[in-house]
Design goal:
79 residues, alpha+beta, 1 helix, HigB-1, RelE/ParE_toxin_dom_sf, Type II toxin-antitoxin system RelE/ParE family toxin
Length: 79
């Protein structure tokens, strides 16, 4: 996994790295239901994707294929 954190708000780096490590270790989306991670399946136009809370509006979002997360992104899909 790439460890370049440039472009990420420095206040978020620890949280983003924690969540990415959890996503990398998981073999299914259900394994990501960590206390405090805010894991949830997305609905509507983003159905089929999942999200974990980084900050109030920002989420780590991703799809799932077999035993791997795919199309991982850091985004504010609320605004």
């Amino acid at each position: 996994m790439k460890s370049d954190t440039s472009g990420i708000n420095p206040a978020w780096v620890r949280r983003v790295v924690f969540l990415l490590d959890a996503v990398d270790a998981a073999k299914s989306p259900e394994q990501l239901a960590l206390t405090g991670a805010g894991f949830h399946a997305l609905k509507g136009r983003m159905e089929g994707r999942y999200a974990m809370t980084v900050t109030r509006n920002w989420r780590l979002t991703f799809g799932w294929d077999g035993e791997n997360a795919v199309d991982v992104d850091l985004e504010d899909y609320h605004g």
